[in-house]
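A favour, since you know our structure tokens better than I do. Just paste the record in under my message, thanks.
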Amino acid sequence: MSQLMLCSLGNSSNAGNDTNNNANTNSSMEDDDSYPLPTIYRCRAPIASLDCMEEFNSGGGGGGGDGLGNCGAVAGTKEQLLTNCIAAQAHRLQHPSPGIRYRNLGKSGLRVSNVGLGTWTTFGGVGGSGNEETAEAVIALAYDSGVNVFDLSEAHSGHRAETQLGRILSRRAWNRTTYVVTTKIYWNSKTEGRGLSRKHIIESVQASLLRLQLSYIDIVMIHKVDPMCPMEEIVRAMNYVISKGWVMYWGTSRWSPVEIMEAYTNCRQFNCVTPIVEQAEYHLFYREKPELYMPELYNKIGVGLMAWSTVTIGMVSSRTEDCGMSFLSRSSYKNKYSSFSWTEDETQSLYKEEYGWKDKLVDEEARKYSDKFREVSALADRMGCSFGQLAIAWSLKNESVQCLLLGAANIDQLYESLQGLQLIPKLNASMMSEIERILDNKPSRPPMVSTLALR
């Protein structure tokens, strides 16, 4: 009873409405006009509602308060703010979302939302404006919607993304226990800090802490393996930053199953903390590693899967006519386990330098899959959604995906992506079979060959 009274008091603008009883995800939310405080609602995991995004009791002292961030409006007065927020509420109540689930990441005790915000687009990547006010509105909408994972990288707009997110988190002053920040230690031949030495790892973590203005980072991921650095040095360095309290967990990004198993073996040998997550590409046209090998790694050594795709992070348009070439051609050229790199330096030069002589083959691959794109898009139209929303729901149907990263340059894109969650119950066995028939690319392991037969 005290919780219901507190929720009613916290929503002064809706004081005349009925008190919001405990929500049930299977019931309709169209008649529910009350909006409980996010901090109260988030305690009611594993379901969080998208309808608890606007607050009118946050003071409204300045033009860029919580209400502005949640509604995406740049209003100069409280009257303008109230008008924009009411309009946004009226629109969203017509299209309620079923909510967000929380899952353990890998076999750790860390609970994460099944969708996270990949901030590359938000902080000025492909299609992003780089405007901090817009980025704050997107992050506020994600947080108030129940998303608790914010993913960063040294490669995502460089150090600027960490600096901006640090300022936003400082201004918002959210409870540190309610969100998870992940960042990456990026390595390639062009970076100034070459390799994954102990020196580079420790310096990168310390620098990220300063930029983020945080006392610790929840997860630090190693982006790609340095073949010139011993695995023992990498795992000992990660164990050191965890033992110092600078990092809570560590994981990997774009590692092969063999490399992940090698890291795990070294951790066990030297009594170091083991990785809990691998961040990998997963979508309708790239399925082998996430579907065949990641479940095995989860069951054997407890490594979970944080997935992303070129559509969900906003790297290409969700419209079929725009994304067919870029989405498919990027998925066509990758080795067996590691996927297309989504970092800025490589996305700009990959085809120009490495695959320039394969332009004809790229065109053939795009034409080969264009029919499948059209059929999947037609199926999405029949379901009343976009191709991107269907791709999000389809990815989350895989129980191995504990967190799917979404990207958004503005609040409209994020809201549209979050609405894709309501498609998950609609993807029943017959619908999934129809998608499999269209794709015709379900991965399978090669048959076992007896060593006796090879003699």
Summary: The chain is about 45% helix and 10% strand. The chain has a mean pLDDT of 75.
